[in-house]
Amino acid sequence: MAQITVAEVLVLLKEHNLLLESQLSSSSHPFDQIAYNSKLVTDNCLFFCKGNFKSAYLDDARQNGATAYMSEKTYQNAGIPGIIVKNIQKAMSLVSAAFFGFPQDQLPTIAYTGTKGKTTSAYFTKAILDQTYQRKVALSSTINTVVGLKPEDVVKSNLTTPESLDLFTMMRKAADNGMSHLVMEVSSQAYKKNRVYGLHYDVGVFLNISPDHIGRNEHPTFADYLHCKEQLLVNSDVCVLNADGTHLTDIFYTAKATTQPENIFIYGRAGQNQETEFPVDVEYRSLKDSLTENQIQVTARTAKAKQLNIDGVYRIGIPGDYNEGNAVAAAITSALMGAKPTEIAYGLANTTVPGRMEIYQTHDHGTIYVDYAHNYGSLHSVLDFLKKQAPNGKVTVITGSTGDKGIDRREGLGKAINEAADQAYLTTDDPATEDPQQIAKEIAAHIDTSKVATTYIPDRKQAITKAVSESQKGDLVVVAGKGHDQYQKINGKNVPYEGDAAIVKNLVKGL
Ligand SMILES: CC(=O)N[C@H]1[C@@H](OP(=O)(O)OP(=O)(O)OC[C@H]2O[C@@H](n3ccc(=O)[nH]c3=O)[C@H](O)[C@@H]2O)O[C@H](CO)[C@@H](O)[C@@H]1O[C@H](C)C(=O)N[C@@H](C)C(=O)N[C@H](CCC(=O)O)C(=O)O
Ligand SMILES: Nc1ncnc2c1ncn2[C@@H]1O[C@H](COP(=O)(O)OP(=O)(O)OP(=O)(O)O)[C@@H](O)[C@H]1O
C-alpha cells in the first residue's frame, strides 16, 4: 500500500527548497492517501490546496478524513495542521512520485512534445513496442490512458498530460500490472503548471513547434511556449530532434545543456533545406505518399545512428506526408528501447489513431477524412497534402474553432483554407461562451470567398451531411477539428454530440 511519512515529506520539500513552514512535527506517522480534490479524500489523507481553490474545499476535505493540508498559504481556521510551501504544484508532483514509490524507476519512459504529432507518434511507438514487449506498453495520451491489458485498464483521458498526482497514480498502476514501458505525451501546459515536475524520461522527443496555445489561460508569448516545451529535453537522458521544424538551433542547445551530443539524435527529410548546422543522424525519403498510406526509406547517416539498426523501407498505414516524420521519430525511439526492424515495420503499417486521418470511402461520392486538425499548422498540412494528391478533385473542409481559447487559431484556419481548399463549411466547435457565428466570421475574414465558396451552417451534423452528400467522385472532404469528441463545450457544459467520426460512418453507408 502506498504511504508517505511526515518526515519524508519534509525532507523532500527541504531538499528542493520548497518548504516555508510546517505546523506538523517531523514524525514517522504515515499518510495513507494524498488528494487534491476534496470529494476524493478518505481517512488519513494529506490534502493539496491548489489552483482556483476555495477554503470550503478544505472544510470538505477535513470532514472526509484529511489529517493535514499542503498549500502556498495558511488557512487559519482549517482545523488541521498545514505544510506551507513556495510552489504547491512542484511540491505535489514531488510528493506524489514519492508516495507512489517512484514508479518511473520501473517504467522506462518515452515522452513526446510538439505542437503537432504527439498523439500520432505516441500511438506509432506503442504499436511497435507492443510487438517487442508482448503488449505491455502503458500509454498516457490525449485520447486514451492505458495501464494494463484488461479492458478496464483503458480509459479516456481528460487532459493531454494529467495532473501530477494522477500521472503518478497511473504509472504506479501500470508498473503493478507488469507493464514494461510508458509512452506519453507532454504538453507545454504540463510544464507551465508543473504537472511533470521532477519527472525524468529515458527518451524525450521534440517533434515541432509553431505558434499555438498562446493567449489567455495558456502561454503569454511564443517564447514562453517554446521554453515550456524545451523543458522536456532538459529532463530526458536521450533527446530526439526533428531537423525539419523551426528553431532547431535553440532546441539543440537546450538539449545539449544537459545531454551529451552522442545521446542526441536528429532526424530529417532527405533534400530538405534544414535550418541546421548539425549533421542529420537519420534521414528519410518518401517512396510513396498516397491518399491511403505512405512508404519511406530510412537511412542512418552517422555512426551512432547506424547502431540503431533501422535502415530499411517502411510502410505507414496512416496517410499524410507529415506522418512520415512522426513515424521516423517512433522508429528511432522504439529502436532505442530495443525494437527490431520487423517490429518497427509491423507497428508503422498497422497503427490507427482515432480521429487522425481516418478514411471513409463512398461508392459514388467523394472520399471523406475525419481529422483532428484545428490550427494553421495541422490544417495547412492536411489540406496541402490532399490538394497535391488530388489536383483535379474538389477539396472541401468543414470546421469551426473553439471559443474562449486559441483565439489566434481563427486566423490560422482561415489562412489554411484560403491556401488549399475549394470549398468551406464553417460550423460550431466548442464555442464555450462565444457565438459560433461570430467565430465563423473571424475565420472567414481570412478567406477570399470569391475563390473559396464559404457557407456558415451552425449545426455541425447538418454541415457535415450537406458537404458529404454533395461531394462527387474524386472529391476530398475533410471534417476537421473534433475527431471522436462526443460533446460540444457550450457555456461551461459538455453538450452531447454524436462525434464527427460516428456521423460520417453512418452517412457513407448509403453513398
Ligand atoms: C488552467 C489550468 O491549467 N487548469 C487546470 C488546473 O485547474 P485548477 O488547479 O485551477 O483546478 P480547478 O478545477 O479550478 O479547482 C481548484 C482546485 O479545487 C479542487 N476542488 C474543486 C471542487 C471541489 O469540490 N473540491 C475541490 O477540492 C480541485 O480538485 C482543484 O485542485 O488543474 C486541473 C487538474 O487538476 C486541470 O484539469 C485544469 O486544466 C484545465 C481544465 C485545462 O483544460 N487546461 C488545458 C489548457 C490544458 O492543460 N491543456 C493541455 C493541452 C494543451 C496543449 O496541447 O499544449 C493538456 O495537457 O491537456
Ligand atoms: N508532424 C505533423 N506536422 C503537422 N501536422 C501534423 C503532424 N502530425 C499530425 N498533424 C496534424 O495534426 C493533427 C493532430 O495530430 P496529433 O493528435 O497527432 O497531434 P497532437 O500534437 O497530439 O495534437 P493536439 O495537441 O492538438 O492534441 C492531425 O490530425 C493532423 O491533422
From TrEMBL:
Q: Does the keyword Cell cycle apply?
A: yes
One Pfam family matching this protein: Mur_ligase_M
- Predominant cellular place of this UniProt entry's protein: cytoplasm
Localisation per UniProt entry: Cytoplasm
Top EC class of this enzyme: ligase
Q: Where is this motif: L-lysine recognition motif?
A: 429-432
Q: Name one GO molecular function term.
A: UDP-N-acetylmuramoyl-L-alanyl-D-glutamate-L-lysine ligase activity
Instruction: Give UniProt keywords alphabetically.
Output: ATP-binding, Cell cycle, Cell division, Cell shape, Cell wall biogenesis/degradation, Cytoplasm, Ligase, Magnesium, Nucleotide-binding, Peptidoglycan synthesis
EC number, UniProt record: 6.3.2.7
Gene Ontology BP, a term: regulation of cell shape
| Residues given in the record as ATP binding sites | G114, T115, K116, G117, K118, T119, T120
Protein origin, superkingdom: Bacteria
* Annotated pathway: Cell wall biogenesis; peptidoglycan biosynthesis
- Cellular compartments per GO CC: cytoplasm
Q: Which residues form the Mur ligase C-terminal domain?
A: 355-483
Which residues participate in UDP-N-acetyl-alpha-D-muramoyl-L-alanyl-D-glutamate binding? S38, T160, T161, S187, R195
UniProt modified residues of type N6-carboxylysine:
K229
**Which co-factors does it depend on?**
Mg(2+)
The text of the family note is:
Belongs to the MurCDEF family. MurE subfamily.
Q: Which HAMAP family match?
A: MurE (MF_00208)
Q: Its biological function? A: Catalyzes the addition of L-lysine to the nucleotide precursor UDP-N-acetylmuramoyl-L-alanyl-D-glutamate (UMAG) in the biosynthesis of bacterial cell-wall peptidoglycan.
> What is the designated name of this protein?
UDP-N-acetylmuramoyl-L-alanyl-D-glutamate--L-lysine ligase
